[in-house]
Amino acid sequence: MGRLQLFIIALTLGLNAMDGIDVLSIGLAAPAINKQWPGSEFLVGWTLTMECIGMGIGSLLLGWIADMVGRRKVMFLSMAMMAVGMFMATTSGNIYQLWAWRIFTGLGIGGLLSAITALTAEFSNLKNRALCIFIMGIGYPIGGIVGSLIAGWLLGTYGNWHLIFYFGAALTVCFIPLFYFIMPESVHWLVRKQPAGALDKVNGIMKRLGHNPVAALPEVKVEVSKKSIGDLFAPRLRGITAIIAAAYFLQIFTYYFVLKWVPKVIFNMGFTQSEGAGVLMYANIGGVLGGILLGLLALRLSVKKLTIAVLTLSGVCFIILGQAPADLTYFAFLAAFCGFFGNAGIIGLYALFPAAFPTHVRASGTGFVLSVGRIGAGTSPPFVGFLFDLGLTLPSVLLIISLGTFIGAGVLSFLKLKKVE
Description:
Low-confidence stretches: none
Number of domains: 1
Number of strands: 0
CATH architecture: Up-down Bundle
Structural class: mainly alpha
Distance between the termini: 18 Å
Helix content: over 70%
Largest sheet: none
CATH class: Mainly Alpha
Mean pLDDT: 83
Strand content: under 5%
Shape: globular
Number of helices: 17
Oligomer: single chain
């Protein structure tokens, strides 16, 4: 892998970190938003989940478009949507306008995530592909760490939740020119689709990557070039698609408790909003460490077996977290372990995407799985709010939602991968 390939992986890490900041911003701002527009815990849950609705639609729709028109165009559009959505959220006059802008922001986040996952796989060599995806994946909790630090400072200093969204919008805008001038189109996509001038474009990218040019592109049969998202549900792939989507849904359903409810739980214990942001920061530090360790282990061990083990341990950690007393240090320590195994499990599933989906459906396949996962992400916060409104205690709530990780590990054990290009 040449220097530009390494820089592209670093850039996808940064873009994923931006995703982390955008998604976690609503969880960090939730107590202040709830104070401005009071409502039940169930209503708070829906506020926390609105961008997930957009992410589900964006992952599926824009992932499919990325397989049709290219990764680069969709990523550029997605970042523009994220910047606009984050900024316009600050203009909301009521909770329903905020919901609408969070859905719009989620469309961009979903499209970006489905495209960068495919792009990371396609700019990596086979030897380091899993590691590169793990590196990209830890961008999300890194964004959570940065977002938690900055949001905690903004809330503690100014007490204004709007500033969190201003920061997210400004950061997104800064990434747009960096991406535009550096990120090339996927060579895999150009070779598969072969649009007008594909050979010149491929050789231009190969030169930038430090590789020799090619005299001609491989012949792609018409029936192969016309394959589309429907191939995900053809006999060859539908079993794989169903298993990965189910496992991802179940893990996301559990893990989103950390991302969305931890700051509110800490606030309900009698601590401040900034202290809640600090606990979330520790959870994301755990997420970074978990992603790094699993990525290194994936160089020598089976990604599938590692992911199954991590999903199981994630469920155990969530059950233990439910037994934590109202002690900020102890709770933060346990939240870090939940982040360690929870995020490692999610990135492990990411690493299985390129091994499961061939080039012509890699972005749309990833987008479909992410879309299903966002249903889990979208239903988890209001479901948790509903359980709290029923009067259930924290140990009971976490015992219930931890079942997702255990069932997900069992589902993933049935996965049998075929060779893909």
